[in-house]
Amino acid sequence: MVWGLLLAGCSYQVGSLVAKNDADVNETGSLGRPDRQPGHAPPTVRPPEPDLAYARAAAADVLAHGGKDSSAPWQNPQTGARGNITPLSKSYSEGPFTCRDFLASYVHGEAQAWLQGEACRTDQGEWQVKSLVPLEQS
After folding, report:
1. Which letter does DSSP use for residue 36 in this model?
2. Distance CA 4, CA 12 (A)
3. 51-84 pLDDT per residue, tens
4. Number of structural domains, the chain?
5. Assigned domain for 114 exists
6. Contact present, 115 and 103 (Cβ < 8 Å)
7. Taking the model in full, what pTM does it have?
8. Cα separation, 56 vs 35, whole angstroms
9. 91 is in which domain, residue-wise?
10. Is 98 domain-assigned?
11. In terms of DSSP H, where are the helices of 19-97?
12. CA–CA separation, 88 vs 68, rounded Å?
Protein backbone atom coordinates (compact mmCIF):
# COMPACT_ATOMS: atom_id res chain seq x y z
CA MET A 1 0.00 0.00 0.00
CA VAL A 2 2.88 2.41 0.74
CA TRP A 3 4.20 1.88 -2.78
CA GLY A 4 0.77 2.72 -4.20
CA LEU A 5 0.80 6.09 -2.46
CA LEU A 6 4.33 6.84 -3.60
CA LEU A 7 3.55 5.94 -7.19
CA ALA A 8 0.10 7.55 -7.27
CA GLY A 9 1.48 10.66 -8.91
CA CYS A 10 1.64 13.34 -6.27
CA SER A 11 2.49 16.52 -8.12
CA TYR A 12 4.54 18.34 -5.49
CA GLN A 13 7.75 19.86 -6.72
CA VAL A 14 10.60 19.49 -4.30
CA GLY A 15 11.31 23.23 -4.60
CA SER A 16 7.76 24.08 -3.47
CA LEU A 17 8.39 22.47 -0.11
CA VAL A 18 11.39 24.66 0.66
CA ALA A 19 11.02 28.28 1.82
CA LYS A 20 12.20 30.83 -0.73
CA ASN A 21 14.06 33.99 0.03
CA ASP A 22 12.82 37.36 -1.29
CA ALA A 23 15.15 37.25 -4.30
CA ASP A 24 13.37 34.11 -5.60
CA VAL A 25 9.87 35.62 -5.36
CA ASN A 26 8.39 37.29 -8.43
CA GLU A 27 5.61 39.82 -7.88
CA THR A 28 2.87 39.64 -10.49
CA GLY A 29 -0.39 41.43 -11.14
CA SER A 30 -1.61 44.23 -8.93
CA LEU A 31 -1.10 42.49 -5.61
CA GLY A 32 2.41 43.62 -4.81
CA ARG A 33 4.00 43.33 -1.44
CA PRO A 34 2.35 45.79 0.99
CA ASP A 35 4.52 48.56 2.38
CA ARG A 36 2.55 48.69 5.62
CA GLN A 37 1.31 46.43 8.35
CA PRO A 38 -1.94 44.54 7.62
CA GLY A 39 -4.96 46.43 8.94
CA HIS A 40 -3.27 49.84 8.77
CA ALA A 41 -4.45 52.48 6.28
CA PRO A 42 -1.87 54.19 4.09
CA PRO A 43 -0.62 57.53 5.37
CA THR A 44 -2.97 60.40 4.59
CA VAL A 45 -1.58 63.03 2.25
CA ARG A 46 -2.46 66.60 3.22
CA PRO A 47 -2.14 68.82 0.14
CA PRO A 48 -0.49 72.21 0.65
CA GLU A 49 -2.74 75.27 0.93
CA PRO A 50 -1.94 76.71 -2.55
CA ASP A 51 -3.17 73.46 -4.15
CA LEU A 52 -6.27 73.40 -1.94
CA ALA A 53 -7.12 76.95 -3.07
CA TYR A 54 -7.29 75.79 -6.70
CA ALA A 55 -9.40 72.77 -5.72
CA ARG A 56 -11.80 75.01 -3.75
CA ALA A 57 -12.19 77.39 -6.70
CA ALA A 58 -12.94 74.47 -9.04
CA ALA A 59 -15.47 73.06 -6.57
CA ALA A 60 -17.32 76.38 -6.34
CA ASP A 61 -17.35 76.62 -10.14
CA VAL A 62 -18.63 73.10 -10.81
CA LEU A 63 -21.36 73.48 -8.18
CA ALA A 64 -22.44 76.82 -9.68
CA HIS A 65 -22.32 75.88 -13.36
CA GLY A 66 -22.19 72.09 -13.57
CA GLY A 67 -25.10 69.80 -14.16
CA LYS A 68 -26.45 67.18 -11.81
CA ASP A 69 -23.84 64.55 -12.64
CA SER A 70 -20.95 66.79 -13.66
CA SER A 71 -17.31 66.55 -12.71
CA ALA A 72 -14.58 69.09 -13.39
CA PRO A 73 -10.78 68.98 -13.49
CA TRP A 74 -8.57 71.40 -11.60
CA GLN A 75 -4.86 72.14 -11.77
CA ASN A 76 -2.40 74.43 -10.01
CA PRO A 77 -0.05 75.57 -12.81
CA GLN A 78 2.62 76.69 -10.31
CA THR A 79 3.00 73.29 -8.61
CA GLY A 80 1.65 70.87 -11.24
CA ALA A 81 -0.83 69.40 -8.74
CA ARG A 82 -4.14 68.38 -10.30
CA GLY A 83 -7.31 66.43 -9.77
CA ASN A 84 -11.06 66.31 -10.31
CA ILE A 85 -14.02 67.65 -8.38
CA THR A 86 -17.12 65.45 -8.28
CA PRO A 87 -20.30 66.65 -6.55
CA LEU A 88 -22.06 63.99 -4.47
CA SER A 89 -25.77 63.42 -4.00
CA LYS A 90 -28.32 66.15 -4.11
CA SER A 91 -28.18 69.43 -2.29
CA TYR A 92 -29.52 69.68 1.25
CA SER A 93 -30.48 72.44 3.64
CA GLU A 94 -28.27 73.47 6.50
CA GLY A 95 -30.16 76.21 8.28
CA PRO A 96 -30.99 78.90 5.71
CA PHE A 97 -28.28 77.66 3.29
CA THR A 98 -28.35 75.13 0.47
CA CYS A 99 -25.30 72.87 0.72
CA ARG A 100 -23.72 70.02 -1.21
CA ASP A 101 -20.95 67.51 -0.52
CA PHE A 102 -18.23 66.69 -3.04
CA LEU A 103 -15.12 64.57 -3.54
CA ALA A 104 -11.84 65.92 -4.85
CA SER A 105 -8.95 63.88 -6.15
CA TYR A 106 -5.40 65.15 -5.65
CA VAL A 107 -2.37 64.06 -7.67
CA HIS A 108 1.08 65.62 -7.40
CA GLY A 109 4.05 63.57 -8.54
CA GLU A 110 3.87 60.28 -6.62
CA ALA A 111 1.44 61.68 -4.02
CA GLN A 112 -2.24 60.85 -4.42
CA ALA A 113 -5.17 61.50 -2.12
CA TRP A 114 -8.94 61.79 -1.92
CA LEU A 115 -10.46 64.79 -0.21
CA GLN A 116 -14.01 65.26 1.01
CA GLY A 117 -15.63 68.65 1.00
CA GLU A 118 -18.77 70.57 1.76
CA ALA A 119 -19.89 73.79 0.07
CA CYS A 120 -22.89 76.00 0.71
CA ARG A 121 -24.56 78.72 -1.35
CA THR A 122 -24.15 82.17 0.19
CA ASP A 123 -26.82 84.89 0.40
CA GLN A 124 -25.33 86.33 -2.82
CA GLY A 125 -25.90 83.00 -4.63
CA GLU A 126 -22.24 81.99 -4.85
CA TRP A 127 -20.97 78.62 -3.66
CA GLN A 128 -18.43 78.78 -0.84
CA VAL A 129 -16.40 75.76 0.26
CA LYS A 130 -16.81 75.28 4.02
CA SER A 131 -14.48 72.31 4.39
CA LEU A 132 -12.01 70.32 2.30
CA VAL A 133 -10.13 67.65 4.24
CA PRO A 134 -8.48 64.28 3.51
CA LEU A 135 -11.05 61.51 3.16
CA GLU A 136 -11.06 59.24 6.19
CA GLN A 137 -10.05 55.71 5.19
CA SER A 138 -11.06 52.75 7.25
Report:
1. S
2. 16
3. 999 999 999 999 998 776 789 999 999 999 999 9
4. 1
5. yes
6. yes
7. 0.67
8. 32
9. 49-134
10. yes
11. 49-65
12. 9
